[in-house]
Structures are given as C-alpha cells and as structure tokens.
Amino acid sequence: MSATPAMPAPLLRVSDVTVRFGGLTAIDSVSFDVRPGELLGLIGPNGAGKTTMLRSITGVVRATEGRVELDGQRIEGLPIDRRILRGLSLSQQLVKPLREISVIDNVALAAGSAKTASPLKSLLHVARHEELAMARKMLERVGIAQHAEQSPAIQPLGVLKRLEMARALALKPRLLLLDEPLAGLNSKEARSLADTIAEINRQGVTIVLIEHNLGEVMRICQRLVVLDNGRKIADGEPRAVMNDPVVRAAYLGGDTLATAAADGAQHA
Amino acid sequence: MDYEISLLTTMGVSVLFALSLNLITGFCGQISLGHAAFLGIGAYVAAMLGKAGLPFLATLPLAMLLAGAVGAVVGLASLRVRADFLAITTMGVGFLFVGIVRQQNWLGGELGISGIPDTGLSKTTFMLLTLLLCALVAAFSQYIRKAWMGRVFNGIAEDEDTMRVLGIDASRYKLVAFAIGTALAGLAGSMYAYNLRFIGPDSFGFVESITVLSMVVVGGIGSVTGVIVAAALLSALPAWFQVIGDYKLLVYGGLLFLMMRFSPGGMAGLVTRFFSPVGSVGKGGRT
C-alpha cells in the first residue's frame, strides 16, 4: 500500500455511510478520514447525526449503506464487541459504569479484554494483578485514582465521565471515540477534562471527539468535521471551518439561512 | 438411620440442581422458568440407559452431555432475546418437555419409568457420592466466580450492553452459562433418577422449575453458600411438614415473591447487609 508521501494512510476511513431509521435518513452519505495521531472534532447542531455517526462506527447502529474501514480493513459488518477488539473504544455520552463493582474493578474489567476475548480463556485465567496495575495507571491518567476503591454509585458526574474514559483507555484502543465527554460539567471541570483529553492525544492515542462545547473543541482539536441534518457540511482546520458561512448558518439555525449564506458567499 | 440417609440424598440432589441454575440465573442473570426440563432430560437419559444395561457411573456423563446439548440449542434460539422474553421462552421449553414426554410410549408416557436398576452402591455410598458431587460443583462454581469468567458473568447480569462496549461477546458468554448450567442439571437429574428408581413426567414440571428458582432466589442470587443452604432447607421442608407438599407452588411462589420484594439479595444479602458497613461495594446481590 503506497500512500502519498505527505499524507499517512488513514486510521479510520468512513466512506459514503448512510443510516436510515425507517423513512428517516439520519446520516446521508457521509465520508471522512481520521489520520493516525490526530484529535478530530466531530461537531454540529443538535440532531445533526453526530452520535448516530459514532454509533455506526462502533456498531451500535448498522450503516444502511457505505463502508467503515479501520486500518484498511472493513469493519461495518462486525458486531460491536469484535470492533472493540480490533482497536476501537467508545466512551459513551450517558455514563454506564457497572455499579455493583468498584471504580477500579470497572477499569480492570476493560483492561482484561485479552483474557475475556473467549469464554474458554476467561475460564482458565484467574489472576488479575496486571489488569489492576493497568487500571490504576489509567485512573491516574484521567485523574481519579483517589476514587479507585469506591463504588461508582456514589460518584459525581465529573468522576463518572473520567471513569468512562479510563475504561475506554484500558482497552488499549488505536482509536478512541468520545461522545460528549464534557456535557453536564461546569466550565472549570470541562476545561480540566479537555486538557486531559488533549494530553491523552499527545501521548499517542488517536481521538474522535463529539462535543457541544465549541470553546473547548476549538482549543484542543486539530481538525473539525461538521455535520448538519445528517450531511457533512465542512471538514478542515478549526478556525477556517468556524469562519465558513455555511457552518455559521447551520449553528444559527435553519436550512434556508444556510442556503442563503451559501448563496451570499457565492455572490460575494 | 435409613431415613436420615435418604433425606440427605434428596437434599443433596436438590442442592446440585439449585447450583446448576445458580450458574445461569445467579451468576449470569438469565432467568429460567423451565430448568426442571433439563433435570428431566438427565433423569430420562440415565433411566433409559440404565435399563438398557449401562453401568450407573457411565450414565452420568451421558446425561450431562445430552442435557447440556439440548440446553445449548435452546440457548442459541432464545438467548438473543431480552431477559424478560427468556423467562417466557424457557417456561415454554419446560411445558414442551412435559408435553412431549407424556405422549411417548417408549419413555413410559404418563406412567413414567419404573424399575430403574440398582446403582450397585450401598445407600450410604450413594449419599456420599451425591454430597461429593455437590462439593465438586460448589467448588467449580466458586472457581468460576474467581476467574475472569465470573467477572464477565457478573457484568452481563448487570448490564449486557455495557459489556459489549467493553469488547465482550455477551451472547456467547450467556450461551456458555446456559450450556454448563443445563449440563449440571442433567447430572442432578441422573442422581435423582437413581435415587428414587422411578421417574414420571410430572416430577419435572413447572412446579419443580419454580421450586428450584425460589431456592436460588431465597439463597441469594449468585451466592453459592446461600443457595446451598436454601436448597437444603427448602428441599427438606416438605419432608418435615407434610402440608407443604400439598401447597408446594403456593409456598415456593410466595417465598419467591417475598424475597424479590423485600430482600432481592436473598438470605446472603440479608447476612451481608447485617454485617457490612453501609455504602460498601457489592452489598446485596452477587456477594
């Protein structure tokens, strides 16, 4: 495989993905690449299809048409758990820790993915020193090591969001998908978690970030893909994308405005 | 002494049966309302093969194999449905088993199978063998709980979708729990058949399925010790109080309801709640 010298082969390639729910088209022929090592922001107004896009990458939702390739291999036909084992990892918008086990046990369970890949392996392995050590490292990385032994049931949202991220990281992903990790946090917490995300990216993890907090997105993302009404309307360097009249119109609301703005841009 | 030996054997068979369901319902969170069908498959396999001249000990693995195989097929067909539908499906399987067996003359039909040959063991040895099997299955259960498999089962019981996002093939694990649990029910069934030396379709009906489920729930879903104690006590009750035998479904159904309503963690949950500080991880439930 010979990629152009300037551009490394994409880690994830989404090609013409369409998702329909009955008569409703949630995603309409969207394509984009995620390059190794980058922190890509996937943004758009409410109902733009960001979460559906992410779900069709992880397999929670099956794409009606199109291809999803991870490292050149098609994954759109695989069930979620297989995609996760191939190197995807998802931190969900609605945090879902297992509440009956401690914070660190939650992360250790994810860290043991090699031992739980098949029931037979899981039956033959008992020890989990390595996984606990790894889990503690991940908790330190996201800054909640002091809550390790506690129950997730009593943690505030800020801690749970970080727990969700630690669990996703413990899967040793090649591509980390974050679905609104900052939602529901106050501005100080959001800023601090955004810093953590940027730091994790600097340590070499490729990240796709869905986020409504545009300030933080602009601060930490290297590239943006913008969706509106299930279509991709922009793709590029954050400042250039946000100055795009089509994107501005989409955020201000209404298709007519978007069209008008686009027309205006053409006339100018 | 004879009475005690036969009572202990009966209790042992019940414990074995309850531990088999505990793997499915207790560990993995999958409710089965038709588990007695697999006890029945084990019992019928053992009885038929025993009458055909196979030695007692050789019938045990074959009973496990067939019960587990049928369990795996039922599991394949039904484990993809959500937990509440699984309860209905397994209930259907339970009725199907009784319905089919009743119509089969070669299985003795309504009359069942009598004259199952003697094991060749003394009553005491048979009792000890039953208790040994209980100990082995209990040890195996405890091992599963400590192994990674137990952690996965535990997670699936709480939240299957989250487990999938952690890269775990939840359907496959549920199938494995179902296959192991039904195979062990087959083992309990063969001990049952050789203990009574008579079996009939009515011994493996809905009432038995509810009885074993109430043993697991009363003991404390997932708790091996709790389930052993509950199964031993509840199986001895009808022997101690004749009247319970007449109102079995009422008594066990009532117990099931009371436990679910007031102590979902069962007896094990009550004990831990009593002795552990408030707010600690794992109170109630799978302890």
Describe this structure in words.
The complex is a heterodimer of chains A (268) and B (287). Chain A is built from 11 helices and 10 strands. With 268 residues, chain A is an alpha/beta fold. Residues 256-262 and 264-268 of chain A have low confidence and may be disordered. Helices cover 75% and strands 1% of the residues of chain B. In chain B, helix 1 packs across helix 9 (206-219) and helix 1 crosses helix 10 (224-240). The interface between A and B is medium-sized, with 39 and 30 residues.
Tell me the radius of gyration of chain A: 19 Å
> How confident overall, as mean pLDDT of chain A?
88
Largest sheet of chain A: 6 strands, mixed
Q: Helicity range of the residues of chain B?
A: over 70%
**Secondary-structure element pattern of chain B, one letter each:** HHHHEHHHHEHHHHH
The separation of the N and C termini of chain B measures: 36 Å
* Largest interface, Cβ cutoff 8 Å: A-B, 39 and 30 residues
Largest sheet of chain B: 2 strands, antiparallel
What structural class is derived from the secondary structure elements of chain A? alpha/beta
CATH superfamily of the largest domain in chain A: P-loop containing nucleotide triphosphate hydrolases
Q: What is the H-and-E element order of chain A?
A: EEEHEEHEHHHHEHEHEEHHH
Which CATH-level-2 architecture of the largest domain in chain A? 3-Layer(aba) Sandwich
How many DSSP H or I helices of chain B? Answer: 13
Query: How many structural domains can be distinguished in the coordinates of chain A?
Result: 2
Relative strand content of chain A: 15-25%
Structural class of chain B: mainly alpha
Query: Runs of chain B with pLDDT <50, length 5+?
Result: 278-287
Task: Quickly count the helices of chain A.
Answer: 11
Q: What coarse outline of chain B follows from CA principal-axis ratios?
A: globular
- Mean pLDDT rating of chain B: 87
Rg from alpha-carbon coordinates of chain B? 18 Å
